[in-house]
Amino acid sequence: MKNIWILIVVFCLTTLQWGCKKDFLALRPDKALTVPSTFADFRALLDNSSEVMNYEPTLGTVSMDDFYLGENGLQGLSTALEQNAYMWASDIAQGQTLVDWNRMYQQVFYCNVVLEGLEKMDKVLKIDQNWGQIKGAALFYRASAFYNLVQSFTTAYRKETAKSDLGIPLRIDSDLNLIVKRASLEESYQRIVEDFKLAAQLLPKNELMLTRPVKNAAVAFLSRVHLVMGDYQNARIYAEQSLKENASLLDYNSLNLTAVRPFPVFFPNQQNVEVIFYSRMISFSYLNSALTYVDPVLYDSYQSDDLRKKAFFVERTASRYGFKGNYSGSSTFFSGLSTREMYLIKAECAARLGDFQEARSTLSALLTKRYKSGTVFPVISRDDDVLSSVLAERRKELVGTGQRWADLKRLNLDTRFARDLTRSINGISYVLAANDKRYVFPIPLNEILLTGIQQNER
Amino acid sequence: MRGLVLMCFLWVAFGLSALAQDKVMLRVEDDNKVAVVGATVKLNSRVLGQTDGSGKIDLEFVGLNDTVFVQHINFLQRSFTVGSLRQMAGLVVLQRNYNLLDEVVLSTGYQKLVASKSTGSMVHLENKLLNRRVGTNIIDRLQDVVPGLIFNRGAGAQVNPISIRGQNTIYSNATPLIVLDNFPYQGELNDINPNDVESITVLKDAAAAAIWGVRAGNGVIVITTKLGKQQSSLKVGFNANVTFVDPLDRFVQQRMSSADYIDLEQLLFKRGYYTASENSVNRTPLSPALELLIASRDGKMSEQDFSRELAKLKSYDIRNDYQRYFERTGINQQHALNVSGGGLNYQFYLSSGFDRNLSTTRGNELSRVTLNMVNNLTFLNQRLEIGTKLFYSGIKSTLNGLEFGDMRMITGQTIYPYAQLADDNGNALALTKDYRSTFINQASGVAGLLDWRYRPLDELNLADVSVGQNDLRVNLSAKYKILTGLYANVLYLYSRNHKLDHTLYDSQSYYTRDLVNRFSIVNSDGSITRPIPLGGILDKGNGVVQTNNLRGQLSYGKCFLSSHDVKVLAGYEIYDSNSLGYANRFYGYDQEHALSQTVDYASNFVSYVNSQSKSNRIISRDSQSDLTDRYLSMFATINYDFKDLYSFSGSVRKDEGNLFGVNANQRGIPLFSVGASWNIANESFFNFPMLSVLKLRMSYGTSGNVNKSLSSYTTARYNSGASTESKLPYAQILNPPNPELRWEKIKTSNLGLDFMLKNGSLSGSLEYYHKAGMDLIGDMAVAASTGTSTFRGNIANTKGWGFDAQLHLKFGQGALSWAGDVLISYQKEKVGDYDISRTAANYVSSLGIPLANHPLYAIYSYPWVGLEATTGDPLGKLDGGLSKDYTKILSAFKPADLNYHGSSRPTIFGAVRNGLRYRSLELSVGINYRLGYYFRKNSIAYNTDFGLNSQHSDFAQRWQKSGDELFTQVPSLPTTANIGRSNIYRYADILVDRADHVRLQDVNLSYQFKGKGKTIFKVYGYLDNIGMLWTANKWKVDPDFEDNRPPRSASLGLKIDL
Fold it and tell me: For residue B293, which phi and psi values (nearest 5 degrees)?
C-alpha cells in the first residue's frame, strides 16, 4: 500500500508542475529586457534619441556647396563613403553599408513596431490620451524618416512626373520577411504628407523634451515638405500656422559671438527659443574635420554688421573659416526644425506667390535679430529681387543645418536658380552640373541584391 | 545514481555439483538466477579461471581446507573453504557494496554506469591522476589527461577556456557544462576544492551526454565529490603544499628600447607631430623626453643639459622598476583536512580546506576557505536512503596590484618605456599620465586644488579593491525502494552564491584627486567649489545567484531470462536560477564613519582642464540587474545488456526554457541518443588469449546548445537614459521578432574501440567522431530597409570530425615499474554554408568571424610583396602592377583572395606522461604538444601613432636606408600616418608561421612511507610550466604565449592518511 501512496505523490507532483508550466516559463530571462507592449515601452522606444531617433542623413551635406575641404582634407576623412560623396563619385558605398539609409529605416522599423503594438492594444486603452500621442509621435518619426530618405535617394519632386518617378520603399510593416518595392515619388510624398497631417492631429501641444515631436513640429514639417514639393500655398499656410504657435527668435545681439560655442548648450535646459524639434545629423568625420571650411563666397556674402558672420564661423587658418554655429550648442550638427526656417519659408512662399510686401516684412523680422542693434540691413528695392534675396538669406541662415542639399535639388529645377557646382581636389577639378543624376545617391548594394528594387542611375 | 546502485542488493548463488571427488562444477548466479559471467575464481592467490557465458566453471580442488575466493567486479568478493562449499547445497547470499568496486564507475550525473557496459565516449579521471597536479582550481587538473579536451589560448580563450572536441557553435555558449554532484554547476570554479573531489568523468559523445539535453552540446564535465565508505573505520586525511611562482620575465617581451623610443619621439617632434598636442586645450600629456625637446627648442635649456638629460632617460627601462616594485615571487599555500567513515547504515565525510595565494603581482592575493559535510543514512531495512551534502566556500580576492598593461596615458597610449617608478631610494616618482607636466605644475600653484601627480608606487599602497564570494550549496536526496529493482528518487539542490565587489578609491588616490580636480571650479574670489566632494570614492557591487533544482525520477532494473539485463530511468526536472545584482557609487566617502555625500548628477560642469568643455557630468555608477533562467525538462534512459556481450543504450530528453516563450517551446523536438557496444573479447569464438578486453562501441545522437541573447519576441532593453542628452529613459530593440527561434542542435556520431592486453601491459582506446552543428545561431543578410542589416537566427551550421586515442603502457612489478600514457587528438572543424562574408580586412585582423568552409578561428594574411628599395615602403599588387595606394590595394582584396594558412587552434594535440616508480618513490613527467595550427607574430604596428603604442622591438629592424630591404622586411617609419600601410605589413604572410610546439609541462616526484599503525605519509614535489622543448616557427618564439609566458612554479607538499 505504502508503495502506491508514494507513486501517487510522485505523480501528483509531476502533474502539478505541468499545471503551472505556462507561468513558470513565461518569466522574462532578463528584467531589463522587455517585449514592448505598454505605453511606457512604446514611449521608451521612440525616446531612443541617442542611438536611433532624431538623426538625419549627412551625405547631402558632404556633397553640397556650403563647405569644402582644404589640402589633405580628403585623405583625412575616416571613410571612403565620405570621400566618394565629397568627390561626387558615381558609386558611394562601394558595396558597403550606408548609414544614411540604414539609420532612417531603423527609425521606420521602430515606428512600425510601435504602431503595430498600439493597434494590438486593448480597446479600453485606445481611448487613453497616451495612445493617440504615441501614435502621433510614431507617425511623425516615420514620416520624417521617409522625407529624409526621399531627399537623399530620389530625384527632386516635379508634379508632372512624380507619378512615374521612383520613390522609396514605403515600409509600413515591421515584418522582416516582406519585400517592399519602391513606390512612386508621388506615393512617397503622399504618405509623408498624410502621416504628418495625422500626427499633427494627434500630437500634444507641449512635451517634456524637444527630442519628442509636438503638434507644432508636425505643422512645421508639413511646411517644409510642401515647400520641397513646390506647393507654396500650403507651405505658407503651415509656416504661418507654425509661427502663430511660436514666432520667437533668438536675438544674436545677446550672444557671446567670440565664444567657441556661441549658442547655449541645448540640453538639458533647452534654452534656444527657436527650436521646435531637436534632431541632428549623423556624425561624419567631414562635419567636424578641422580641414572642412566654409565656402569663401558664402562667407563673404555676410555683411560685416551681420552677427551671423561671427556667430556661425570661426577663423581656422588665414581667411579660412570653419562652422561653429550649431543650435545644439555643441559640436553636434543640429538639423531639426526651428522658427527661423518658418520665417524663411513664409517669406519665400509669399515672394513666389507675389506677395512681396509680406515677404519683405517677414524677412526683416528675422534679420533684425541677426544684425547688430542699431545697424540697418539691406533693403530689397525691386520686387523682382525679393525671391532671390530670400533664397540668399535662406542659404545664409540655414547653413550647416542639412537643408542645403534639398534646396539645391529643388532650385535646380528653376533655370533662374540652377547652378553647377565645382570642386578642385588635388589639382583636379570636378563638376556637378545642375540636375545631374548624381544628385540622387545610390541605394546600398545589399538592398538591391536582397529585394531586387531598382537602383538609381548615377 | 550512486544510491540507486547502492540500494540494489544482488544475491549470488553458488550451485555446486560434484562430478568427481576432486572436481567440482561451480555455478555463479545472482538473485534473479542469472549467471554471473566472468567471475574470477582463485585458490589462495592462484587464479583457477573465470566463469563462462552460463556462469559455470570447473574446479579442481586440492584439499578440503583450501580457501577459494570468488571475485567479480560487480560483486563483493567472498571466500569459502572447499569443505564449506561442498556443504553449501543452498545459496550463499552476498551483499553487494558498490562503494568498494574496483571496476571503473562512470557518472553521467544522472546515473552510474559500469565502464565495461557503457556505449558512449567517457573519460574517467581517478583521484590519483587528479592529484598529480597542484593548484587551487579543479579544472586546471584536466589539462593533458583527457583526449579531445583542449585548453584554448589566444582568441576566444577568455570566454571559453576549454573546449571538448572543438567548437560547434558560433555565437552561443561554447563552454562545456560542469556538473557537480548530480546538478549543473554555475558558480565559480575556484569555489570547488580539488581535495574534495573523488573523480571526474568527461562526457564527450551523444550517448554519454545527451541526457543533459540542450546544455550538453559542448560536452559535460561531471565532478563527483568524496563520500565516506561503508563499514570503514575513521579515516583522517591531511594535505598541505606550498607553491612558489616565478614572476614573468618582462624582458622576454619584444619591446622597443628606451633609446629607440626617444629617437622616434625626437623624429616625430621635428616633423611637428606633437604640435597639436602641445597646444591642446585638453592638456594632452607629453612624455618627459618631449618636454625636454620643447624646453630645448624654446631656449629654456642649454644644449649640454639637454643631451645629458636625454641620455639619462635613454638609460631607464620601466621594466626594471616594475619587476622590482610591483612584482614578487608568488606563494600559494594549500591546506586540506578531511575525516570520513561509516557504518552499515551511515556514512559521512567532513572536510575543510584553506588556500592562500599571493600572486606574483604585488597587492593581489586570494584566500579561500572551504567546508564540506556529507552524510548518508539508510533507514527501513535499507529501503530508504537519505543523503545530505553541505558545501560552503568563502573566497576573498584582493586586487590591489597594478598590472603592467594598465599603465597608460589618457590617450590610451602605452606609457613611455623609460618611465621611472621610483628613485634610487625607493621613493615613489610621478609619471606623466593624463595631462602635461606643465599644466600640473601650474595647477599645483592654484590654492585649493589637490595634488595632481600620479605616482604608481603610492597607488599600490592606497589601493583597496577586493572581491568577496560566498558560495553555499545544499544537496538533499532521498531514495526509496518501492519493489525489488524499482526505486523512486528525489534530489534537490539549493545554491546561493553571493559576490561582493568593493573598490575604494582612497581620498589620496590619484583617481579621486584627479576627478575632484577636474570638476573643481575656482571662483573669482579664489575660493573653490567642488561638485565632487573631498573624501574617497567607493564603488560597491553586489550580486546574488540563487538556484533551485528539483529532480524526481523512477528507475527500474531487472534481469530477465538469465541474460537480459535492463535498466530504465525516467524523470522530470525543474530548474530555476535567479541572479540579482546591483552596483552603487558613493562620493565623498568617509571610511572612518562610513558616510558618503550626495552629488549633482544632472547638471553640466565646466572642466577645470579645458574651460571650453562645458557639458561634463558626474559619472553615476548605479546599476541593477535581475536575470532568471528557467528550465523544465523530462528525460528517460534505457540500458540493456545481453550477457556482457552486447549493450544498447538510449536516451531521450526534452527541455523547455523561459528563453523562447511558450509557443517556441511547444514546437521543441526532444533530443535523443542511441548507442551500442560489443564486447568481442567475451565472445566464445574470440580466440586471441592475449587480449582480455576488446570492445567496439558506437553511438549517435543529438544534444543542444543555448544562446541566451536571443528571443522569439521583439525584445527591447531599457536604459535609464542618464548619460544621454535628453535624459529620458529609452529602450533599444535588441531582437526583431523571430518566431522560428529554437535551440541549437549538435549531432554527434562516435565510434570507439577499447582494448587491453591480458597482463595489462597495454590498454587504451581509439575513437572516431563526427560532429555537426545544426540550426546554429548565425547572421543572415537582410535588406537594410527592414530596419536591421543583419538578422541573427538559426541559420548556420558547422562540421567537425576527429580522432581521440589514448594508450596506457605498464611494465614491471615489484620494486621497479614504469607506466606511460600517450594521448593523441586530431580534430578538423569548419563553418558550413554561411551567408555573410565580411571585408578581407575583418578576417585578417580578428579571429572568430565565420567564413563559409573555413574554421571559425582561422588565420588569414595578405600576400607580402616586399619593400620598395628607395623608401622602405611596403608594396602591394594592384591591377597587375606594384602599387603603394594602400587603401585601394587592401579594399580590392576579397576574402577569397587572402592567404588562408589554417586554424589558429591546434588540430593535433595531446600529451605523453611517463611514470617511473622505484619502491615508494614515484616520478612522473608530463610533456604536451600542440600541432597543426598557425599564429601571427607580433611586430611593429605603425598605425596612426607611428608605433608609439605598439612599442615593438622590431622597430630596430626597420628599413632605414637603401639596401636594408635585402635583409629586413620591416617597413620604414612612415612619413605620414597611414593605416593601410601599417596593416599591409602587420597582416602579411611573412608574420604568420606554424605554431606547432612541444612543451615540457610538469614533473611530479613523490615518496611514500608508512608511519605508526596505518599512517601513510607522502611527500611530493611538483614543477609546472617548465619550458618549451621544440617549436616550429622561424623566430623560435612561444606561439601560445609570445609576451606572457605561463608562470613557472615549484611546489612542495605533504600528504598524511591516518
Answer: -60, -40
